[in-house]
Design a protein that fits this description.
Two copies of one chain form a homodimer. The radius of gyration of chain A is 16 Å and the shape is globular. A seven-stranded antiparallel beta sheet of chain A has the order 2-1-5-8-9-4-3. In chain A, strands 6-7 form a two-stranded antiparallel ribbon. Chain A is mostly beta strands and 169 residues long. Chain A has one domain: Pnp Oxidase, Chain A. Chain A contains three helices and nine strands. At the A-B interface, helix 1, strand 3, strand 4, strand 8 and strand 9 of A face helix 1, strand 3, strand 4, strand 8 and strand 9 of B.
Chain lengths: 169, 169
C-alpha cells in the first residue's frame, strides 16, 4: 500500500473532533484533537493522545488536567483554528467565547458538549503520549446536534503526509 | 446529572465499532469493541481498551497481538453477535466467514476494513486495560461503505446502566 492508501485506511477508524484545553496558572492554551476515546466506566476515564511537542503538553502536565470541548458538525472552522500551531505572538483564544474550567483550562462556550478531566496517568505511545483523564465534570449543551467527525474534515490537518509509505512487520 | 444523562453525554464521544480478534495457538476468540483510537504515526499505533474479565484478554496477551475488523453501518447484528459473552460451549466464530491473521487471530471476511496489530504495550486504565498495537498489516475492503458508529447502536450493549449516578470530583 502507498502512503495515501494507508491514510485512507486509517480514516476508517471513526473519531470525533475536539478542542482540548490546558492551563497552568495564567498560561493557557487549546488545540484540536481527534485521538480520544473513553477507556473505563469506573472510574470514568478518557484517554487522549497528545503530541509531546505540542505547547499544550507541558501545560496539561503542569496543570494536572485538561478540558474537552466536543465540536458539532458545523464547526469545521473552529477545528481548523485550534489546529494551528501556537506561538508566542498568537493567542488562539482571542476572540473565542470560552470560560475557565475548575483548574483554569478553557472550555468553549460554543460546543456540543464538554468534559473536565483530572490527569490520572500517562504512557509513552510512539511519537505521542497517551494521557488518562478522570472525568470529574461535564455537560451536554446541544442535545440535538451531531458531533463533527474526524473523517468529515478530510485532510484538513495534512495528516495524510504523515503516514508511512508502507505497512511493515 | 443522572446516570442516563451521563450515558447520553458520553455518547458524544464519537467512536466506531469493531470486532477484535485474538488467538493463542488453536484457541481463538473475537469480541465487539468501540474504545479504540489511533495514537501514533511513527510507529503506527492503535490503542484499544479491553476489559480484563473478557475471555479474549488473556488470549491477546498470550498471542502477543490482535486483529481489528472495522464494521460497516449495515453490520449491527454482527456487532451484537460478537458482543455476547464467550463461553466454553459457545464458539462465536461458528458460521462466520473469517480467516486467520499472521498469528492466527480471526479477521472477518465481511468487514469494511481490517488491521493486524502486534502488542506494543499495556497500561491499567480503571476497570479496563489499555493496550497498544503496532499496525503491521491492514486493508480497506469496502472503500465506498460507511463505518458503523457506536452511537448508531444506541444502548445495544446495555452500557447506559454502567455509568455512575453522578460525576464527582
Amino acid at each position: 500500500m502507498a502512503s495515501a492508501e494507508i491514510a485512507e485506511l486509517f480514516r476508517r477508524v471513526t473519531l470525533g473532533l475536539y478542542v482540548v484545553g490546558a492551563a497552568d496558572g495564567e498560561r493557557r492554551d487549546a488545540f484540536t484533537a481527534a485521538w480520544l476515546t473513553q477507556v473505563s466506566f469506573d472510574p470514568l476515564l478518557l484517554a487522549l493522545s497528545v503530541n509531546p511537542q505540542n505547547a499544550s503538553h507541558r501545560l496539561l502536565h503542569a496543570g494536572g488536567g485538561f478540558t474537552v470541548s466536543v465540536l458539532e458538525e458545523t464547526q469545521q472552522e473552529v477545528a481548523r483554528h485550534f489546529g494551528l500551531s501556537s506561538g508566542r505572538d498568537r493567542d488562539k483564544l482571542a476572540g473565542i467565547a470560552w470560560r475557565p474550567g475548575r483548574r483554569g483550562a478553557p472550555v468553549l462556550r460554543d460546543a456540543l458538549a464538554w468534559f473536565e478531566c483530572e490527569l490520572a496517568g500517562a504512557m509513552p505511545a510512539g511519537d505521542h503520549e497517551l494521557v488518562l483523564g478522570r472525568v470529574v465534570d461535564g455537560g451536554l449543551l446541544l442535545p440535538g446536534a451531531r458531533p463533527l467527525t474526524y473523517a468529515a474534515t478530510g485532510d484538513m490537518d495534512g495528516s495524510s503526509a504523515l503516514y508511512p509509505a508502507r505497512l511493515s512487520a
